[in-house]
User: Which sequence fits this backbone?
């Protein structure tokens, strides 16, 4: 079975035989009116020679437009995604496309990308979950069955797919520079989930900024998290248990920062008097939290808009874009509010 699957001709085989790009093959088979007659004949002859007929039939079935785009979200309960979704919906609705949203956490034991692709439910996919199986997705793409796919916010570990992301490393560096500028030299970090690309990028940015200031991040000041309020609160309990406490903490998300501050407040500590806290994202609650949260603002609406624009381009051009354009980076901004300042001396060590 597996040996037979490996011999199934792919769209790249047709492209090689015809001496054209895979995008040209796609257009010749799905929209023959968009290519020259000689090119179309060369592609059809190559498809015949390689035995690509079965895949062509499946491709033609898939190219019956649904008028919808699927957006894959790792956690619909996280308010961070609301503005991204709004940006996506605004852009796609202007193009006459509707938006279908799915929570990838609810697809336990099932590869959601493959399921949706094989059921032909969308003309394109915007994935906000960088942990999706790109190996399986790439296999479907090579078979010529998949609609265009764009990753937004999070991204897979390589650049085979178009992605739109924030300047995460720079944002972490801005947070550290701000805290150092306030006189802090003992800076801790509440990390995102293990293996997440945002976790790694923000930690790398923090490490580079600390190093530039001649500082380091001790293991005891690195607190585990998963971008949720609960994990921020757990990090707060770890901070309280330390004998040697950092005077400032950079959290990899606003929700964790809020959970961290709330946990310390319940124990009689206040921000920023006892510890300065910086978040990342600038979600809606950040400005209204007590104290208002200093954070790194991602332009989430622009993330969504740009991802949708990239996808629309992919749909129209069948993904024929140069590699240099595969990554689009959206700038970030430090927003200074009331959660950072000069820290009271009692945050340095545990009170007796």
Assistant:
């Amino acid at each position: 079975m597996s040996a037979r699957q490996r011999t199934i001709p792919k769209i790249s085989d047709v492209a090689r035989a015809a001496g054209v790009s895979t995008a040209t093959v796609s257009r010749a088979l799905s929209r023959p009116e968009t290519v020259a007659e000689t090119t179309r004949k060369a592609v059809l002859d190559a498809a015949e020679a390689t035995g690509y007929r079965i895949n062509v039939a499946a491709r033609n079935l898939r190219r019956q437009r649904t008028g919808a785009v699927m957006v894959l979200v790792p956690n619909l309960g996280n308010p961070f995604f609301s503005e991204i979704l709004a940006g996506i919906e605004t852009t796609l609705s202007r193009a006459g496309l509707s938006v279908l949203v799915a929570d990838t956490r609810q697809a336990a034991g099932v590869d959601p990308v493959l399921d949706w692709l094989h059921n032909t439910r969308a003309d394109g996919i915007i994935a906000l979950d960088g942990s999706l199986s790109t190996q399986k997705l790439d296999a479907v793409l090579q078979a010529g069955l998949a609609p265009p796919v764009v990753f937004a916010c999070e991204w897979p570990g390589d650049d085979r797919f178009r992605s739109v992301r924030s300047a995460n490393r720079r944002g972490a560096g801005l947070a550290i520079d701000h805290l150092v500028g306030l006189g802090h030299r003992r800076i801790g970090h509440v990390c995102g989930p293990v293996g997440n690309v945002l976790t790694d990028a923000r930690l790398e940015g923090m490490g580079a900024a600390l190093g530039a200031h001649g500082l380091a991040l001790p293991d005891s000041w690195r607190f585990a998290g998963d971008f949720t309020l609960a994990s921020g609160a757990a990090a707060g309990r770890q901070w309280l248990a330390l004998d040697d406490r950092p005077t400032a903490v950079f959290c990899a998300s606003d929700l964790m920062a809020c959970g961290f501050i709330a946990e310390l407040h319940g124990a009689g500590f206040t921000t920023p008097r006892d510890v300065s806290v910086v978040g990342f994202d600038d979600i809606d609650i950040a400005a209204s939290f007590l104290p208002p949260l200093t954070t790194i603002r991602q332009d989430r609406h622009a993330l969504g808009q740009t991802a949708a624009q990239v996808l629309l381009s992919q749909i129209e051009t069948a993904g024929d874009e140069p590699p240099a354009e595969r990554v689009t980076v959206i700038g970030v901004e430090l927003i200074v509010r009331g959660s950072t300042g000069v820290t009271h001396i009692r945050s340095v060590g545990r009170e007796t």
